[in-house]
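Marked as duplicate of an earlier ticket. Keeping the data here for the record.
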Amino acid sequence: MERKLERYIPIEEAARKYNLPVGLLTKLVEAGKIKAVKFGVDGEEMTGVAERDVIRVAGQRISRDQVAHLRGKPIRLNQAVKKYGLNRSSLWKWARQGRINVLRDEEGVLELDEADVAYIALLKKMGAVQQGRAILLPSS
């Protein structure tokens, strides 16, 4: 059984990529909320942070309240793809897994809760949803 190694990125890169203050990331490392390693590059010591932990923290900073006005509003799968730029098969899979609330599923019509779709689009925009990786949805 192959074990996947955790990906670490420099703390400054994580701050830039996920729009988080370096100071916040440093405090979370010190508090043990984000795993970190020290490494050297060209004789300079740097701090690397576990990208998955940073994604989790960044996702928690996005509130579902930002899309609450869309709660219960139906959006068809194809409309969601066009409006939010998300992958059709991913949306379908997430709906089947219960990660997106399905409002209607009959006769070839799949209507999703637009609030869930919009929330995932926000997460994607900030890098918490990446192609070929499991979706990381922070709890509500």
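See parent ticket for discussion. The mean pLDDT is 87.
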